[in-house]
Batch of 2 targets.
Target 1
Amino acid sequence: MAHHWYLNMYSEIVKKSFKELSSEEIYQILDLRLKVFVMEQQIMYVDTDYKDQKSIHYFIKDGDRIVSYLRLIPPHIKFDEYALSRVVTDPNYRSYGLASKLIIEALNDVKGEPIRISGQAYLKDYYEKLGFKVVKGPYLEEDILHYEMVHENL
């Protein structure tokens, strides 16, 4: 792949609490999530679930633009464990491993604590390669098949 040079240019991972996010960053995060989950995947759901305020936000920028993102939700908010959620990459930046970088970073940040996700079924193999194991499913969430998966994160 000819793009490895540029992957390194955009490899800095930014981590912020909700309060630390600028209004521009919040806007871009919501924009990216809506473009991918609502427009591209046609998921009709309310993205603003009030978990953002309690989450740590991980993202990678290309210049001033957020191109890959996820949030780490502390225990007892979505699941008993930590949760990864809203894992999303701009369509023009896919297959460079940006989301995997963010996931691995989040896992390392809470090493020793298991992480649970509700992953879309088509991403099961992807998450399994990262060390997640199916514990429940498949089940429907927002009309899309999902698996609940846990990473022991030891």
Target 2
Amino acid sequence: MAAALGGCSFAIPGGEPAPAWKNVSDDVTGSIPHKTTPTLSHSLDQEDWRRANAALGVALDPQGAGATVNWDNPESHARGSFTPVGQPYPSEGKVCRAFLAEVGTKESHEQLQGTACRDKSADWALIDVRPWRKA
């Protein structure tokens, strides 16, 4: 019986079937988290973030004084500050540093903590940002 069934086959129009690995769906599942880039605050517009990012770079600079750096945008009235926490440290070929941040807009005031890293030639990139919790 196996020999008789073994001869049963048919051709698929258009050539050979795609390999099984090409049939893998691109759907995102709950078991693999989708990686997103952290943001400092959803209440900041593009110009607010440009100004905040410049202050972040000054505050986290390994050659800097380690002091708080303030920023503001007079047009939107957003303002804030970054305070480096601890010393810079290497991680996966990058320099990283923890920070505390305050962000204020007309609608909200946030106290945050986070980590940012940069490679030798790039700007600081936020790695982790979350509400500040006093230890």
